[in-house]
Amino acid sequence: MALKIIESCVNCFACEPLCPSKAIYEAKPHFLINPKKCTECEDDYKEPQCASICPIEGAILDALGVPINPPGSLTGIPPEKMAEAMAELQAH
Amino acid sequence: MELPVLNEQPAAKSGCSAGSCGSTDDQLDHLSDEIREKVQNHPCYSEDAHHYFARMHVAVAPACNIQCHYCNRKYDCANESRPGVVSELLTPDQAVKKTMAVAANIPQMTVLGIAGPGDPLANPERTFETFRRLSQEAPDIKLCVSTNGLALPDSVEELSKHNIDHVTITINCVDPEVGAKIYPWIFWENRRIKGKRGAKILIEQQQKGLEMLVAKGILVKVNSVMIPGVNDQHLAEVSKIVKSKGAFLHNVMPLIAEAEHGTFYGVMGQRGPTALELQALQDSCSGDMNMMRHCRQCRADAVGLLGEDRGDEFTMDKIEDMEIDYQAAMEKRKVIHQAIAEEMNSKRAEKHQAAQAFAAEEKLTTRPVLMAVATSGQGLINMHFGHAKEFLIYEASPEGVRFISHRKTELYCSGDNSCGEAETALQKTIRALEGCEAVLCSKVGYEPWEMLEQAGIAPNGEHAMEPIEQAVMAVYKEMAAAGKLEDLSEEQRASA
Questions:
Q1: Do B187 and A12 touch (CB under 8 A)?
Q2: Which of A7, A12, A68, A80 to mutate against chain B (most B CBs within 10 Å)?
Q3: Do the chains contact at B260 and A89, CB–CB below 8 Å?
Q4: Inter-chain CB proximity B192 and A52 less than 8 Å
Q5: pLDDT category of residue B265 using cuts at 50, 70 and 90
Q6: Cα(B147)–Cα(B145) distance, integer angstroms
Q7: B359, B16 Cβ separation under 8 angstroms
Q8: CA atoms within 13 A on the CB side of A55
């Protein structure tokens, strides 16, 4: 079982020093998790550390490929509101 | 952060007792000699110094431990100039190289700050490695850091070991109810904590950090973002509290929120304050403490004099090719800094004299007037109306002339003109001058002249190359003599 960082990662370094298993490493184009090392923090913390500090919704997936921080969960912006604003901007 | 403005007491309240009657522009006057000594060559601390001294930020701190509703962590745009935005993240080693290169090429440089793009103290190794090395390799450069305060109590000891000139803490509230509307979450003791609980911890850490820094004798400036309907009513209390705990300066900045920034406030349509709302709040806070009024809210990787950004000249690949004699550069800086200090001191003395002469004159009883000034520095009216990217706003009153703020003529995005509403640049500029009754510049074209007059703002090009305060006062007296200014009402006089 391991978590995964995907391309929406903004390379902010916040997760890397928190990982108790040293599974996270800097890579191009974005940070990655070594699935062999990742324990999902099971024996160390109640919640996976990377996903607890990551500011980007959707950037970290659980073992089933589901975003741990889904859209709207961190910024508080309702996804439909975000979609509306983006559509509005593109129309201009 | 940008221009240094330490505003004095409002003229209305203090009358002439503030000691800089006549020209009350120099907010440094209201600091103790010891603090003034420390900050007088800091470009962020006086409108005056920022025209002479340069600063830079190095973007070594990408991680953050909280989320603010005015920040979008995905953002990185070359056309944007505002806090939290950078183009190139640096390692501490690169940051040291860049600082040394900039300080060699821009000898007016006095200050190096770390301000992000995340929170410097949430990146303690990268931040402190940079400070450690610069304290050794460029001991004449002052260091400063800004933080949201969450990790501050744990960092105070380390901060006190370096050449840290001052620390800026962003404090937007002292009430967790308010905080919950600004900070959706914090990361604390290995957990993400949302809402009021998170805000409460953040506020406690900020206040504790402030007290600890003051106890160590480190200067603390407090930044607050003014968010209408969220904390605007609350910031006067914040100002009172942080001053009572020993912060030497309070900088209230307007919220920047545009939908295209993708921030919570931007997308949800939260507006920023108008220039007049900001000014009213700054005035209401300034009874309690020194207010900073010239902050230009610069990028986390800004380079150069305030209001300009020469970051493009110092990208890492360009720096690699530079040949620099660091020792010679430091000696050159010393000479240049001294010459600037002398010039500033003589200007200060001149202003003081003018203020004394003014105090001896017979007092007008007319109401105060706001005027806008186009300047490229040196304290002179020396810019063409159409070239001004920002205007300095002064208030003229029977008590004298005081610097109020700067106002940008462009919106924060300098990208293509198609974004935003269909308003011409000139209309935007005139809107930015809301509340002003005159604009002083070296020249004004025919078209803007007409539009300014229609908007009730008298264009004035008759004081080109004159010192700003003198010209503003001259125009004020002309307006008074022409009967354009009714007297202060009894009520206003009573409150003055």
A1: no
A2: A12
A3: yes
A4: yes
A5: very high
A6: 7
A7: yes
A8: 27
Fold of B365-495: Nucleotidyltransferase; domain 5 (3.30.420)
Of B69, B123, B267, the CB nearest to A82: B267
Measured CA to CA in angstroms, residue B390 lies from A45, B122, B386 at distances of 51, 34, 10
Residue B126: list chain A partners with CB under 8 A.
Answer: 13
pLDDT beyond 80 at B259: yes
User: For residue B350, what pLDDT is reported?
Assistant: 83
Q: Does residue B423 carry a pLDDT above 70? A: no
Burial of B384 (0-12, 13-18, 19+ CB in 10 A): middle
Architecture of domain A1-92: 2-Layer Sandwich (3.30)
Best interface-test mutation with A: which of B129, B192, B261 has the largest number of A CBs within 10 A?
Answer: B192
Tokens (6 digits) for B290: 């020194």
Domain chopping of chain A, boundaries: 1-92
Contact check, Cβ <8 Å, B65/A53: yes
Q: How far is A32 from chain B (nearest CA, A)?
A: 16
Interface touch A55/B184, C-beta < 8 Å = no
What CATH superfamily classification does B11-320 receive? Answer: Aldolase class I (3.20.20.70)
Residues of chain B numbered 115-134 and touching chain A (CB < 8 Å) = 118, 122-123, 125-126
pLDDT at B180 over 90: yes
Tokens matching residue B29: 């006057």
For Cα atoms B327, B332, B337, give the angle at the middle one, nearest 5 degrees: 125
Most confident listed range (B71-80, B83-92, B233-242): B233-242
Q: Please compute, for residue B312, the number of CA atoms within 13 A of its CA located in the half-sphere on the CB side.
A: 5
Q: Where are the domains of chain B?
A: 11-320, 365-495
